[in-house]
Design goal:
single chain, 245 residues, alpha+beta, Ubiquitin-like (UB roll), five-stranded mixed sheet, three-stranded antiparallel sheet, 6 helices, binds iron/sulfur cluster, binds FE2/S2 (inorganic) cluster, 4Fe-4S, hydrogen dehydrogenase activity, Hydrogen dehydrogenase, 2Fe-2S_ferredoxin-like_sf, EC 1.12.1.2
Length: 245
């Protein structure tokens, strides 16, 4: 049965089991996000997608839509909070965009542009982070990891390999590699694995592919994060549809 919610005054239909994010994206209403990907179970870690639903702040990627819910999404206040979250992600890691191979393809960078981030605002942490070049085809640089767990979900749910996990707590949380040595080269991860291609930043890179697409022709040189995510949703919907299998 189809019911409706309203988002910023627009009536949006949803079906049982859909989250606010699912319903919004299907109706082409954009809620900024980083850790959500329509191909994977929602995780609710980045908090960029927080909206006000019936007066309460909730993560729209995990909150089920319910009949007559009133959602507020695109306001200066919520976008300011989202900008602050992106700024915190920048200072909490070591994101050196001009020197990063993923520049122009990075969703964190694109979120900064989308939310009109002018500076990191907060003091940089400069945390010591590990770089792992042990795999013949895949490079892992934890300096750029935003703990979205997309690689964890892809490796566990699609590749069925459990190559990645999260270790530590709070400020010490970090991406861990499930091998005795803790090195990627000692896992059975393959360059064809889904987990090798889901990272929204430059934390997981494919070796010998850097700069094959020149700067100026990369994803976010051509489109905004909003356009990218709405296209991603459309692609997943068509793959899931009757003709997509
Ligand atoms: S390596 Fe990439 S995909 Fe994995 S948790 Fe970090 S940012 Fe997310
Ligand atoms: S997209 Fe909802 S918490 Fe990250």
């Amino acid at each position: 049965m189809t019911s409706t919610i309203t988002i910023d005054g627009k009536t949006v239909p949803f079906t049982e089991g859909q989250t606010i994010m699912d319903a919004a994206l299907a109706a082409k209403v954009y809620i900024p996000h980083l850790c959500h990907d329509p191909e994977f179970k929602p995780h609710g870690s980045c908090k960029l997608c927080v909206v006000e639903a019936n007066g309460r702040n909730v993560t729209s990627c995990t909150m089920p839509a319910s009949p007559d819910m009133v959602v507020i999404n695109d306001t200066p206040e919520l976008n300011e909070d989202r900008r602050a979250l992106v700024q915190m992600l920048f200072v909490e890691g070591n994101h050196i965009c001009p020197a990063c191979e993923a520049t122009g393809n990075c969703q964190l960078q694109a979120a900064g542009y989308y939310l009109r981030m002018q500076s990191p605002h907060f003091m940089h942490f400069y945390p010591p982070r590990r770089v792992d070049a042990s795999h013949p085809d895949i490079f892992l640089d934890l300096n750029r990891c935003i703990l979205c767990e997309l690689c964890v979900r892809a490796s566990r749910d699609i590749d069925k390999k459990n190559v990645f996990g999260i270790s530590g707590r709070g400020i010490d949380s970090h991406l861990a590699v499930n091998s005795e040595s803790g090195r990627l080269g000692d896992t059975d991860m393959a360059v064809t694995d889904k987990a090798a291609h889901v990272c929204p930043t430059g934390a997981i890179l494919i070796k010998r592919k850097g700069y094959t697409v020149p700067i100026g022709q990369r994803i976010f040189d051509q489109k905004t994060l909003r356009e990218f995510h709405l296209e991603q949703q459309k692609r997943v919907e068509s793959e899931d549809g009757p003709d997509g299998g």
